[in-house]
Design brief:
Helix content: 25-40%
Order of helices and strands: EHEEHEHHEHEEHEHH
CATH class: Alpha Beta
Distance between the termini: 34 Å
CATH topology: Rossmann fold
Largest sheet: 8 strands, mixed
Number of helices: 8
CATH superfamily: NAD(P)-binding Rossmann-like Domain
Bound molecules: NADP nicotinamide-adenine-dinucleotide phosphate
């Protein structure tokens, strides 16, 4: 079992904190203030305290501030697996249900984060599904959806795959951090049925021979 810092007090941070704790890991939720977090009755700390004290990290903060936060935490994240749930959603309204992003197809948010904390081992994960299906994501017929991941560090990906498998996911490793350029836009596609029709519990599955 590991000690995991979940950096983020929003619905994703709360959901994953409970999910990792149910697997038996020691979890602390980080926020700016370190104060108690609604929806989580375990320990809390500031972002820096939480990151420093944990073996592994989940990054679940607002996309627009993620790079600034990771830059400030580079020392605390050094040598650690950082499962990056963030999406680069811009502070602009969607067009016909299609979210606006502040990144381009030539550079993902996770690549920026990896550059901001070069000694951390970022793994894109959890960004292409809604919080309602992040933990125990299987469907009534037993179908397990696919979580797409990517990152430069093989051991960090192996650790992330073990966490994801424990939570109930089938995992598809798409390669290096550059693959986040393709994985992050999956959130745009995923959100369209929600923003246009109010459906928020679907998930992606990769079918292959
Ligand atoms: N919602 C979903 O279902 C879903 C699904 C997949 C991926 N995601 C991604 O997961 C991430 C978290 O999403 P969320 O919906 O849980 O919450 P969110 O509202 O996107 O983020 C909440 C977190 O961001 C921090 N934050 C906000 N403004 C900040 C600032 N100016 N400086 C420092 N920290 C700041 C908050 O800090 P405090 O704790 O101090 O308030 C809080 O911890 C996002 O990147 C989102 O795109 C969301």
């Amino acid at each position: 079992m590991s000690s995991v810092a979940v950096l983020g007090s929003g619905v994703v941070g709360q959901t994953l904190a409970r999910g990792f704790a149910e697997l038996g890991h020691t979890v602390v939720v980080g926020s700016r203030t370190g104060k108690p977090v609604a929806g989580w009755d375990g320990p809390t700390a500031t972002f820096a305290e939480a990151a420093l004290g944990a073996e592994s990290v989940v990054l679940a903060v607002k996309g627009t501030i993620a790079e600034e936060l990771v830059t400030s935490l580079a020392a605390q994240l050094q040598g650690k697996t950082v499962m990056d749930t963030t999406n680069p959603i811009a502070d602009r309204p969607p067009t016909d249900g299609v979210l606006a992003y502040f990144t381009t197809f030539e550079e993902s948010l996770m690549e920026r984060l990896q550059r901001a904390a070069p000694e951390a081992h970022f793994v894109k994960a959890f960004n292409s599904v809604g919080n309602a299906r992040m933990v125990q994501p299987w469907f009534a017929d037993g179908t397990r959806p696919t979580m797409f991941i990517a990152g430069n560090h093989d051991a960090a990906k192996a650790e992330s795959i073990a966490f994801l498998d424990g939570l109930g996911w089938e995992v598809a490793d798409m390669g290096t951090a550059a693959a986040a350029r393709a994985i992050e836009p999956l959130c745009m596609l995923w959100c369209i049925p929600g923003l246009r029709g109010g459906s928020w519990t679907h998930a992606f599955k990769l079918l292959q021979d």
